[in-house]
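Hi U.,

Before I forget, here's the chain from the pilot set. I'm dumping it here mostly so it's searchable later in email.
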Amino acid sequence: MKALFITLLIFVSAFLIYDRFLTPAGRRIVFENPPLVLPEETPSRSTTIRTERVPRPSTDSPAPLVKSGDGFVPPQIEPLEQLTKNWTVFPPTAFPRQVKLSKPVQLRMAGGASTLPAGSTAFALSAQSNVLLVAPTETSQARGQIFVHDTDMPTQVRASYERWKKGRIEQAHAAWKQKLASGAITAASMPHAVDALGKPKANADGSYDLLLASMRSGQVTDIKPAKIKRWGSPQATTIDDKPTWTLNLWYETIAFCGPLDAEAQAQIRDGQVIRWIYPGSGEPVP
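Structure:
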């Protein structure tokens, strides 16, 4: 028995030596070598990162700015994910709203707890990050929490966003055509609407003819006279190293989630509205 074991050991050792050193590459049984990776082919950390971050096509990516048949260039509109910061930020006007639950939610109140099953509806009252605070009704004291994506809120918001985006483009197109028709490509000019110092004159109701004319000419499309809630007073300042009057107003605009209160500023110089901006960011008002 011992002799048989020694014989087998010698045979196995001889086979392994032959397979390692004498058998051609590609035909070895035990010691087949892995494929050779040349240095320049070795995956690097940076290569891996670039590969993982190749963006996938998204319906929310901004459409390229392509001129229409009449030369109109549609405005660049931010993708929905960017506006909501990846579904973590919503304007207050988005609430309350009724949502459908895709997962059960445990509700708590002073008298105990209950559960809303998946498939039922609830009222989203607010959001913190990507979590909704929900209640069975708008007046109920019971409260529960659920992730935004465990409800149909993204579907609702996306539908509102698409309508809003289409409306913004149509509105900008109509204003552009109005400018062409009237020849008012530059700022609206109404010298009689300002005093000797260039300060805009207010009407009895607090409005200003110069600013109203600017809106009607299409210089700004987001502000509608009927949606203005409050007019400010002209303030003298210096912009672009030139004496300028600024006048803020507050109005209701339509955001991707519904109506929203906004503040805009008109900058007036030489009897003209030279530009409209959002005073907080300095961005132009569409």
